[in-house]
Amino acid sequence: MKDPKKTMLFPPPHFSLIGHRGAAGLAPENTAASFKMAKNLGINWVEFDTQCCKTGEWVIFHDDTLERTTGKKGRLHDTALKDLEKLEVGSFFAPQFKGERILLLKEALHLLISLELHANIEIKGDYTEDPDLLRGFISILSQDWPKTLPPPLVSSFHLETVKFLKSNGLEVPYGYIIEEFKPDALEVVKKEDFFSLHCDYISLSAEDLKWLKKQQVPVLLYTVNDYETKVRLLNEGISAIFTDYPNLLIKD
Ligand code: G3P
Ligand code: MG
Fold this sequence. Notes:
It contains ten helices and nine strands.
């Protein structure tokens, strides 16, 4: 992992598209339907969000609160798995997706394996108060992702989470996510020997992109939903982008 050029995740000059929350513009985010949609559109990689619910299980869910995607009040962290299992996360998007449910992390991994998709797992939440939950995450990845496959790329906005996983023996490539690009964040990626820096493409100037090109660290940008921006970033040497609309970006 020392020299990203030697890794096969995003081998330069190859440019990768990563389906954001599956294909969140075309199917309900972070669901089986969304992952299958991404696969059907020719995507090789999907990003999804995972966090722990009240009873300690890792589930696939983006928001802190339930309302936007389930229509129910409450917080994910305060809801037990048995109650999450009763929720439906498809019809907020469109009626034909009614019946989609919240996946457990291990279910999502098994589905991605069967679909032959690479995984970028984004960890939401702060687990500094309860590191056993992160140990549980390590166990799931160790048990439910075959050693024969390229490991998932594990990322988070929470630097301490990424550092904890790395120092506790989970041997995967790591991504550090930030919103606004800052050169300091790239120094963190280099110092901690992470694989990649992920940030919002809006925050990058043409000068930032030029500088990043020289840094030899894969940069992954979210969330790009138009073809022209994709082509511009590709020409600037960006390693991969996250998109909600793989159908709009795969034209060549
Ligand atoms: O992992 C990249 C991107 O998904 C981060 O933002 O809010 O969509 O999880 P968000
Ligand atoms: Mg995400």
